[in-house]
Structure formats: structure tokens, C-alpha cells
């Protein structure tokens, strides 16, 4: 099969690799489209260290091509989205129902070969059947939308909440959309004007591209979604939040930084982390199928697999939101 193999940092080669053989409880998925994500870019640059060679990619839509031994519950040709973090199912964390933070989880495209290939094997319990009428490209947004839904449900706004979305990459823009749908008044912050333009199209009532401008709204926000991963984001957010505000962290800063901890106590702020997803895939598929999520505004480019290195070179473009690879 054709696959984009990362042989080392910034060295990607289109290779012919053996088709994976699904084991017991697994299915073989023929990948149709796959999203390119910040994690793939970080792996490509070598920032995540570790294992090479590896096939990157974890946001995939495809169709069932084969079943492992004893395979039941699905049929060949069924269109599916893959949930790409496989928990052990046995540790204390998994048994408490929080498989998303299982310390033993296996991540597709990082720990094992991922979806920038014609075929990938995945556990049956981690593939979700697509609803009728949902396009491959829209369905390729299921994984990042599930990330946003997971955090959103931990920190959901009510009508009248004044929401700040800090960072408007794909996940940040999903937060904008979800918060607007819930009736909140949404402000978005990002240094990239093209993405703020999309935030306004999704219903953000105010957008800022400079922190100095945002200082004028200091103390106003009752809910903040931090999606940028910028090292100084949390300190700013703590200062900008209203008394009693809730802060949801999904960005992953590369380095630690100091925060005004006394303000957390003084303002009784609640800070909550969120990591990937638990059981949000069906809800994400439902939102996409209903058209509640403007997938047309999120998908910026679709590349053939052998153009993936070019797509990664374009990753920093302010005009890119979610680029896809069309594989078969
Ligand atoms: Zn991703
Ligand atoms: Zn576990």
C-alpha cells in the first residue's frame, strides 16, 4: 500500500508498505480522507522526539476493508470515522470511565503507524459508523470536533455568559461555533486576522488580534477556552477573567510559565483541563450531519497523499484552518 512514511524529522517519503493485518477485535480500514493536525506537524518537525520511521496521521475517515479474526458488529464497505487513541481498558483510570487519560493508551500516528496511508488497522470499538449523507470531508472533522466537545461539555456556557476563545485554530473555532450555538456572547482572540474573519462568520461578536486591545475587556469574561497552547496564555486569562469565571485548558504549552496564583484564589476561578475525548464521537457526527457545524468554513485545502510534504510546509499559513489529504 502507498503510505507517507516519516523516516526522521522533516523527512517524509511516499513508500510502498505492507498492508496491516487486523488482529482479533480489530478492523482494517481503507482510508479515504485524513485531516492534518498540529500533532502531525509537531511529529514531522521532530518536536515529539521518539520513534521513527512512523506513518503519522490520526484524523481519518474510511471504509471497512477487512475484519480481524472473530470480527462482528460491522460489515465490509461500511463508512467509518476512527477514534485514534486506544486505551488499555484495564487500569484504574480506564475502569473509572476515563479512558481518554489512560496512562497506557496507544496513539495512532505517534505510537503506532497512523492514517496517512491507504490502510490502517484499528480496534473495532474505536471505529464509528458514519451517518447517511455525511461527506467524507465533513466526517474527517469528527476527531478534532470531539476534542472541542469534550472540553465544551466540561465547561458549557449558558445564554448570557461572556465567552472568550483564546486561539482560533481548528479547535478554537469549534469552541466559537459551539458557544455561539449555546447562546453565549463570544469574543475570539488570535494574532491571525484570516482566522478571526472565520470566527466572525461563525458568530463571534467581537474579535481581537492584539493582547493590548483585549486588556480593555479585562475582568469581563465568565468563561474562557484556552486553545492556543501559548506559554503566556493562562497568566493573561487569569487577569482577564471575571470573578467566579471558569477556565478550560486544551492547549498544550511547550514550556511552563508563572501564573498569578493569588488571583485564582481572590476571584475564585475554576480551572479545568480537557484531553482528547471519551464518548463524544457520536455527538460530533450528529452535529456534522445536521450541518450545525459549518464544515465548509473549516476545510481549507485537500491534497493528494503524495503532496503531504507540501501541505506540511504550508502548515503555518494564516489562511489554513483544516487541510485534508485525500487518499482513496
Ligand atoms: Zn488531531
Ligand atoms: Zn487504561
Structure description:
The chain has 328 residues and is an alpha/beta fold. The protein folds into 2 domains: 2-144 and 277-326, Quinone Oxidoreductase, Chain A, domain 1 (Alpha-Beta Complex); 156-273, Rossmann fold (3-Layer(aba) Sandwich), CATH 3.40.50.720. It is 27% helix and 28% strand. It is built from 12 helices and 18 strands. Strands 3, 5, 6, 9, 10, 17 and 18 form a 7-stranded mixed beta sheet that branches. α4 packs across α5 and α4 packs across α10. It is globular.
Work out the number of β strands.
Answer: 18
How many helix segments?
12
Sequence of secondary-structure elements:
EEEHEEEEHEEEHHEHEHEHEHEHEHHEHE
* Bound heterogens, unique: zinc ion
Largest sheet: 7 strands, mixed
Helical proportion?
25-40%
Brief characterization of the structure:
This protein is of the alpha/beta class and 328 residues long. It is 27% helix and 28% strand.
List the helices and strands and how they pair.
Elements: E1 2-8, E2 11-16, E3 26-35, H1 38-45, E4 54-55, E5 59-67, E6 79-82, E7 85-86, H2 92-95, E8 106-107, E9 119-123, E10 127-129, H3 136-139, H4 142-154, E11 162-166, H5 170-181, E12 185-189, H6 193-201, E13 206-208, H7 211-214, E14 221-226, H8 233-240, E15 241-249, H9 261-266, E16 270-273, H10 281-290, H11 295-298, E17 299-304, H12 308-313, E18 322-326
Parallel strand pairs: 11-12, 11-14, 12-13, 14-15, 15-16, 17-18
Antiparallel strand pairs: 1-2, 1-4, 3-5, 3-9, 3-18, 5-6, 6-10, 7-8
Helix pairs in contact: 4-5, 4-10
Amino acid at each position: 500500500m502507498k503510505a507517507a512514511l516519516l523516516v526522521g524529522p522533516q523527512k517524509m517519503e511516499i513508500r510502498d508498505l505492507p498492508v496491516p493485518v487486523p488482529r482479533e477485535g480489530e478492523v482494517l480500514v481503507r482510508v479515504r480522507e485524513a485531516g492534518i493536525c498540529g500533532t502531525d506537524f509537531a511529529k514531522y518537525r521532530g518536536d515529539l522526539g521518539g520513534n521513527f520511521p512512523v506513518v503519522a496521521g490520526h484524523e481519518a475517515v474510511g471504509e471497512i476493508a477487512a475484519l480481524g479474526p472473530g470480527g462482528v458488529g460491522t460489515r465490509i464497505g461500511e463508512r467509518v470515522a476512527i477514534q485514534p487513541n486506544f486505551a488499555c481498558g484495564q487500569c484504574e483510570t480506564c475502569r473509572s470511565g476515563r479512558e481518554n487519560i489512560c496512562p497506557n493508551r496507544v496513539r495512532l500516528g505517534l505510537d503506532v503507524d497512523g492514517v496517512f496511508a491507504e490502510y490502517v488497522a484499528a480496534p473495532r470499538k474505536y471505529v464509528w459508523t458514519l451517518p447517511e449523507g455525511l461527506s467524507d470531508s465533513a466526517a474527517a472533522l469528527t476527531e478534532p470536533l470531539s476534542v472541542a466537545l469534550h472540553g465544551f461539555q466540561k465547561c458549557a456556557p449558558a445564554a448570557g455568559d461572556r465567552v472568550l476563545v483564546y486561539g482560533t485554530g481548528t479547535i478554537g473555532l469549534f469552541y466559537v461555533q459551539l458557544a455561539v450555538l449555546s447562546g453565549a456572547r463570544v469574543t475570539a482572540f488570535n494574532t491571525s486576522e484570516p482566522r478571526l474573519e472565520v470566527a466572525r462568520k461563525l458568530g463571534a461578536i467581537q474579535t481581537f488580534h492584539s493582547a493590548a486591545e483585549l486588556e480593555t475587556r479585562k475582568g469581563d469574561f465568565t468563561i474562557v477556552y484556552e486553545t492556543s497552547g501559548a506559554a503566556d496564555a493562562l497568566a493573561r486569562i487569569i487577569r482577564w477573567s471575571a470573578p467566579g469565571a471558569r477556565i478550560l485548558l486544551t492547549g498544550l504549552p511547550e514550556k511552563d510559565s508563572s501564573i498569578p496564583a493569588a488571583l485564582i484564589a481572590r476571584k475564585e476561578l475554576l480551572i479545568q483541563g480537557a484531553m482528547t475525548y471519551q464518548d463524544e464521537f457520536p455527538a460530533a457526527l450528529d452535529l456534522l450531519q445536521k450541518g450545525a457545524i459549518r464544515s465548509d468554513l473549516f476545510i481549507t485545502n485537500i491534497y493528494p497523499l503524495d503532496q503531504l510534504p507540501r501541505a506540511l510546509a504550508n502548515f503555518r499559513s494564516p489562511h489554513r484552518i483544516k487541510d485534508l489529504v485525500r487518499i482513496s
